[in-house]
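User: Show me sequence and structure for the first protein, then do the same for the second.

Assistant: Starting with the first protein.
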Amino acid sequence: MKSVLNTAWVVVLALGLYGAAAAQYGVGQQVEIPAQTGLPSGSPELLKQIGVTQNLGAQLPLDVQLRDETGIERPLRAYFTDKPVILAPVYFSCPMLCTQIINGIIKGLREVHYMPGQDFEVVIVSIDPRETAELAAGKKSSYLKRYGRPGAEQGWHFLTGREEEVSRLAAALGFRYAWDEATQQYAHASAIMVATPQGQLSHYFYGVEYRPNDLRFALIQSSQGKIGSPVEQVLLYCFHYDPVTGRYTPMILTAVKIFAVLTVLALGSLIGYFLWQERKARQTSAVTTQAVGAE
């Protein structure tokens, strides 16, 4: 009986030490990641005009008319069927930041085994109304070669559109940008979004690098269970999407607390069972002793 009690205290102590270590070294804590911007240096006024406002749950204007790489104009809803959609507001002649954003999407999706066109769609929209379908087609060809997955062209769309149409979409995305006459460039933040098949915004990711697991989990959640194995669906419950950082963080501390409580309850039940067995054995022994004495 003493060995059981000793083991119980060792387990409880170990759980307490693990929880303390997790808290001390930041396991499961969330870190804010600031969004990078395409703001030219020396333009403080433009800084006030750009940014990203998260419109989580907002409905996108699916009637917005945009041109595909072949020059055919279609409503945005043409790219929303039964699959989640990754959206990236950029412009194709951007000298640096937009290229890094699209490269970040490619890098992240290379390690996601879902297939564009089959499991999800990627919609890259130019915020520059002067850009043409021919330019979009060239960019699509170049980036798909970099992506290197045969058949992916069915799920990647590089779109252009009139200023009023693009502005409506950008406003719904919460994506604010401004034209800088001095540099002849657009000032904008770096962010991509994920939307449900119905066109509701569900996730925002910032910066120019997007972790494969973050993209994978966002697609699983946004798809409403239509993609992802049962194992991935269960794994998703172990992570928490933080809209402030645009990251999924493991819920380690919560899991440790739950596990600790369950372990203590299990050990308490086990100890109670052994005590009951020991008391029962003593009572049986006493009855036997009395019976022998009576004889």
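Switching to the second protein now.
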Amino acid sequence: MKRFFNKRETIVAEGLQGLLRSSFGMNLCRLEGVEDIHVILRKDWDKQHVAVLSGGGSGHEPAHAGFVGKGMLTGAICGQLFASPGVDAILAAIRAVTGKAGCLLIVKNYTGDRLNFGIAAEQAKALGLNVEVVIVGDDIALGRTDKARGIAGTVLVHKIAGAAAEAGKSLGEVATLARQVAGSLSSIGLALSDCNVFTPGQKPRLSDDEAELGLGIHAKRGRTRSNGRS
């Protein structure tokens, strides 16, 4: 895959700078403070409403910063390439957007995301903030189990929860609706090529005539592989 970037170490920060300078980014801002915390927020956010946050590893653009806006996410916490954002970044985002109405965290079902968002939520609660967490695992390629990964269906949870929050629903109502949507989603992940990890000398796992069912978005091994002849 052809691509252009300066350095792998700066690709996230530079990508977000580009987003903010674009026409889409005119209503967005970056949470200032620690240099290695990458949080994109709505400029026009009103803390009277429930805040809706999500995030995860970068490299899946437009997820997650591209989903921030009216009726969608209040903010997005962006980790490094294919790595969950740290607890400090998530907690900083929660504190920046959460008022009396509370905050909903929408988390895809990956170990790192569940761990870091979960710890940040507990720390926020200890500070007196009202926080709920909804886990999305819509990829049924590995079966309808607790191992189902969160993939494309997550954006529908963002949209519906964000619209409910914008309409003035309570945190309990927004969280309940988000869980109902997440529980009703079914997606199937099918990959025709490997994930591009921006690493020199990366060797592909899939040959040109192969596809893999359930391949993880970070090149995690899927369920079955086929070349169309088996």
